[in-house]
């Protein structure tokens, strides 16, 4: 069982839009044991779509195409399906009714001819109902391959995948089991981790694959198992994870797919019934944004301030003006004062604070671009560390925010 | 001049990671007039990489491959280059020196053998220097095609594209001009816009292409011109834009490629010498984070508070406790009070505030999941609007933050 995902749209090829649809579809297919072996992004061009369909014919069992559907003139997928399957467009009255009703309900106007023409579909296509939009999905088969076409608007695409495609695929195909487990490590680089687990990795059973997913400050290790016996896969993944724990237990901070530092922090704070606040300068709200991306975070994240300008550190946070004058705004002393003030005004058990220069230009202070002080206020006091993160700006912000969460996690663990 | 972009990595094919590298590379190539005709994501598998390279041979002039480089065992691109170009790995001493120095400086430890082996490269490869990481980029040619391999870590990839690849491509190839102009419209759907400009669209010159990029609440229209005479392209795009303005001037809110709302806001505030602050509840720092993602934003973004818990709205922002009691924390009155308080404590000309329930669980208030109040404080007063954004959580946060920036932009325009 192999699948390919094709995204149609010039806006992707010129880099105007990042394709997030393919990742969603891939995850959905992976969950039901269908392996995606290739993703493609191609232009809104009939011949290019035709060539791509032909190249995937019988090479993939399932081909899911998004984009190139919709009411305007650059929409070509539907016509290309007619070419490829030697079919013609016919008006589907049930579909037209859906389009007319949706336009009237959502837009509060009557449907135009262009809207109504979205009910024109290849005569032999099985319609994939789009309850949340006017462009229908289509399912057509040729040889051993099912080709599907979906609109590119993410929430319409998601709706059709979840409610139409996945149930249909589950019914049609027998699939193997695919299991993943991700082990998150912090504080050591990819190569160091790799050396520590080299022998273990070499002795992994053939049906298990290991991947390294490094990002600044951490490495995730992903184990993937594929086979027909779910219990065997599960047990083997568990026993291999146990062995790994024996080898690098000191740097393992969590397990499971999608387990980010902010999720782990949330779980830890909830368990300890403790709270956190943040005062951010150069990270500009990134820490607050990461923390609040977790559902239920209002229970333990008291809040944050983004005091970007020096004056707001004084006015809003209440940092001592003299302290800033004596130490510079980018300093350990100011970071620590910010953390203590955030802890106090939010009434939190812990607080993190950042002050630094993310670049590319120098800000209020004379600090080198890339210099960040991160401070941690805990029930036992306050301390800070200096990070030299270089450039570019986004890396500085990302690393400082990640570092802050990581370190405060360790502090909370101690308390 | 055609290019293809290939991303190597199983983490993309299972949907664990969204590929943002390809969009960055595409945008960089587009800017120098190189058309990307296809993007592919494939597995970490030697044969798959080989097949893909062979399929692009002489079909693309430039093939840029990211991922599959790095110190661990699942890195295969380098070895595959040796296979494809019938070459062998040799140790590059200059590279090894760079790796050793970088590890010592950044990690404060000595380089391991695995680190040092990153200096093993195909003997005939031209090295693309990676100043910010240990995995080198490579450039190798066969027939009419240049193949390049880059590490998948985004900031390393970006550095090499900007500092190595683009200058080399500009020197090597004569390229046509590609010009884009994006016209941003708000408030009417794709089909309505399409009907209003149908005649104009039909009479566009052949070297200009129009694309519709719809997203919730807005449609961007992208004009792309391609040719050898830059002046002709520029003039035609300008005159066609003028015609468009005559047709749908009422819904056009801005122009230009890559222009996000936060960038436009920054430019507008700078021009007017005015400032902005934010008080966020359900958007949890997203607004601050968007604003501060723009370099130089410290000049006009005074700062923000993330008052997630009801108590912090009182303690930190100074919202009246009785007001919250009488209106509920998710209400127009509280949103407006938050905006006014943020404007006051940060001493800003404008402020936005959000309070709502992003879900999936109900928070401090009884408001329906998906209900958000956004308030706008301006030099002339304060007002708010209620949004019903449904679910999921991320959509609620995203839409509320975008809506806030969009609306305050319009308010600043008026002042």
TrEMBL record, chains A, B:
The chain positions of domain MoaB/Mog read 4-172
Q: Which domain of life is it from?
A: Bacteria
Output the PANTHER family linked to this UniProt entry. Answer: NICOTINAMIDE-NUCLEOTIDE AMIDOHYDROLASE PNCC, NMN AMIDOHYDROLASE-LIKE PROTEIN YFAY
Q: Which family does it belong to?
A: Belongs to the CinA family.
Q: What is this protein called?
A: CinA-like protein
């Amino acid at each position: 069982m192999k699948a390919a995902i094709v995204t149609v749209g010039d806006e992707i090829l010129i880099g105007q839009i990042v394709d997030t649809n393919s990742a969603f579809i891939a995850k959905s297919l992976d969950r039901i044991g269908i392996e995606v072996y290739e993703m493609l992004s191609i232009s809104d061009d009939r011949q290019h779509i035709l060539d791509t369909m032909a190249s995937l014919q019988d090479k993939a069992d399932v081909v899911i195409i998004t984009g190139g559907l919709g009411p305007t003139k650059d929409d070509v997928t539907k016509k290309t399906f007619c070419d490829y399957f030697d079919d013609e467009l016919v008006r589907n009255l049930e579909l037209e009714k859906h389009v007319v009703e949706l336009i009237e309900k959502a837009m509060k106007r009557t449907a135009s001819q262009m809207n109504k023409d979205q009910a024109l579909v290849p005569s032999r296509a099985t319609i994939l109902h789009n309850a949340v939009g006017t462009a229908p999905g289509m399912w057509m088969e040729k040889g051993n391959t099912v080709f599907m076409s979906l609109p590119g608007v993410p929430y319409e695409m998601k709706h059709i995948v979840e409610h139409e495609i996945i149930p249909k695929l589950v019914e049609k195909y027998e699939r193997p089991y695919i299991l993943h487990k991700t082990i998150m490590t912090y504080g050591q680089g990819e190569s160091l981790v790799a050396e520590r687990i080299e022998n273990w990795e070499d002795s992994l059973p053939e049906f298990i694959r290991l991947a390294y997913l490094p990002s600044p400050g951490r490495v995730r290790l992903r184990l993937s198992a594929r086979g027909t016996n779910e219990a065997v896969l599960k047990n083997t993944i568990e026993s291999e994870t146990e062995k790994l724990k024996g080898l690098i237990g000191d740097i393992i901070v969590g397990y499971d797919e999608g387990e980010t530092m902010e999720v782990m922090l949330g779980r830890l704070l909830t368990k300890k019934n403790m709270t956190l606040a943040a005062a951010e300068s150069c990270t500009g709200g990134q820490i607050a944004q990461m923390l609040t991306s977790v559902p239920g975070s209002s229970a333990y994240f008291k809040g944050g301030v983004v005091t970007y300008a020096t004056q707001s550190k004084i006015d809003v946070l209440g940092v001592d003006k003299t302290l800033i004058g004596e130490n510079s705004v980018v300093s350990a002393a100011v970071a620590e004062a910010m953390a203590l003030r955030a802890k106090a005004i939010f009434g939190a058990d812990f607080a993190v604070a950042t002050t630094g220069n993310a670049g590319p230009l120098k800000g209020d202070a004379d600090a080198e671009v890339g210099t960040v002080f991160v401070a941690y206020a805990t029930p036992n006091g306050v301390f800070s560390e200096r990070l030299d993160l270089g450039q570019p700006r986004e890396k500085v912000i990302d690393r400082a925010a990640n570092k802050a969460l990581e370190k405060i996690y360790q502090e909370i663990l101690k308390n």
